[in-house]
Structure formats: structure tokens, C-alpha cells
Amino acid sequence: MQLQHIFNEINRVDPELPERMSSRRHAMKSFAGIGAKIGLAAMPFLIGSIFKKAYAQSGPSQGAVLEVLNYALTLEYLEAEFYAMGISKGTALVPAGAPANAIKTIGDHEAAHVSFLKTAITAAGATPVAKPNFDFTADGTFADVFTNYATFLAVAQTFEDTGVRAYKGRAAELTGGGDLLTAALNIHSVEARHAAHIRSMRKANNFGNVKPWITGKESGIGAVVQASYDGEELTTQAGVNIVNINGTSISAAAASEAFDEGLTKEQVLSIVGPFIVQ
């Protein structure tokens, strides 16, 4: 989910990185199509090589970029472990068949992100941050998260919806980033599919009055997760009020559904903080 932060923060701390890698941005364009040419296992080493070539030696700018990678790794640890623990409970938590397959697939994505980031950080000459301890009950707020399927999916929805908004919140910082923006948007679309699928699973089980998308600032869960949804009720985009625009009948609910609103890095950290044991 948090690979978006990598691209956003790299561009923020060192906007000239793509140019240093290649005056024609060839390196990033090559990376975009690398999946058809090399195996997934080799990709982190390629990223490490790119960093080393882009920075002649270690320095504050490279250190800032690597700090962002470790930050992203911490968030990926959280999601990967959450889904792994859910699957480990077997059918006592997640029903067999399509539900279990979906949760395992999403969990596999998160585990792949963890492996990818750890290898990339090591290849760049740095040390991956150690996995912290997690409390998925959020200090008792979700006490039955691994014994109650409804609670498990509610927490999963919150993680995924938060991730989608995290991508949106920082995308503007990639303006002019070209290939970096493209890569971030590619990841963002997959996270949105995760969120929609988890929401559909909750709806199918009558676990909440939810749609595959967010309406207003409704979570379908309750006040305990409201921070992940506040701000989604906006109906104005780029200074234009979408409600009944150009004489078309568009409700406030529909206008809010048509656009996702972003979350800042600080807001995301505040949301996931209760799940991380200090």
C-alpha cells in the first residue's frame, strides 16, 4: 500500500533524481517495462543499482530517500502481518473458498511488497528497519479482530481505504515527475481494487451498509475509524461545485462518491499509530 510514499518522498527530497539517472529519463522508462524482461526477484537489486548510480556517494539526500523506504517498509510489515495472521486462523475466522482466496491474495501482495523493499534497501547499501510489534486490536478497540469475521473485514477495509487516500494525498507532489507519477498511479489502482473488494465482501455478509466506494464520509463501521473517512464528503473539485453542475441532477452523495480526497503523511501515521506497539 505504501509504495506511493517512496515515489512521493523521493521526488520531494530530490526532484533532480530522474535527471541524474538519465538526461532522457531512459532509466525510469526502462524500469517501467522491466517486468517483461527480468524476474521479480532481480528487480530490488536493479533499484539498489539505480540508487547507487544516481548518487555517487552516500549523503543527506540519499539518506532521506532510504529513510522513506524504511518508513514504507514499516507500513508494509503491518499489512502483511495482519493478513497473514487472519489466514492463519483458518476457517474459524475466514470462510473457505472465495473469501479465503481473496484474503490470501491480498496478503500475498503485501508480503511481496515487504520482500521487495527489504531487498531494495539492502541493495542500496542500507539496513532495512526491523519489523515492529503490532497490536491489531489497537489497544482493545478491536478486541475480537481475529475471532470475529466482521471485525476482521472492518479493520481490513480501514487499512485499504486509508491506503487509497494516502496515494491521492501525495500524488500532487509528483507533478512533473513523469515516470515516478506513472509508477505511483499504477500501484494506487491496485490498492483501490483491494479496497473495493473488501467492501464488497462486507456487503455480501451484511456487515455494514457499504458500497464498493465511499459515500460522503460514511465508513459503514463507526466513529472508531472516522479519521480515515473525514474529508471525503467534499463536493468541490478545483474550485468547482460538482452538485448539480451545468444543470445536471447530481446529488451531494454522488458528487462525493465521484472523487477521493487525500490524506497527509501525518494523518496516515496518526491512523495506523494505535496498531504499532512502541
Structural commentary:
The chain has 278 residues and is mostly helical. It has one domain. It is 55% helix and 3% strand. The chain is built from ten helices and four strands, in the order ααααααβααββααβ. A two-stranded antiparallel ribbon has the order 1-4. A two-stranded antiparallel sheet has the order 2-3. A hairpin with a 2-residue loop joins strand 2 and strand 3. Helix 1 packs antiparallel against helix 5, helix 4 runs parallel beside helix 6 and helix 7 packs antiparallel against helix 8. It is globular and about 55 Å long. The two termini are 22 Å apart. 36% of the residues are buried.
Helical percent range?
A: 55-70%
Distance N terminus to C terminus? Answer: 22 Å
Structural class: mainly alpha
Topology as a string of helices (H) and strands (E): HHHHHHEHHEEHHE
The radius of gyration is: 20 Å
Low-pLDDT stretches: 16-40, 54-61, 176-181
Tell me the count of domains.
1
Biggest sheet: strands side by side, in what order? 1-4
The dominant shape is globular
Number of helices: 10
Mean pLDDT: 77
In this structure, how is the largest beta sheet organized? 2 strands, antiparallel
Assess the beta-strand content as a share of residues. under 5%
Could you tell me the number of beta strands?
4
Key terms for this structure?
single chain, 278 residues, two-stranded antiparallel ribbon, mainly alpha, 4 strands
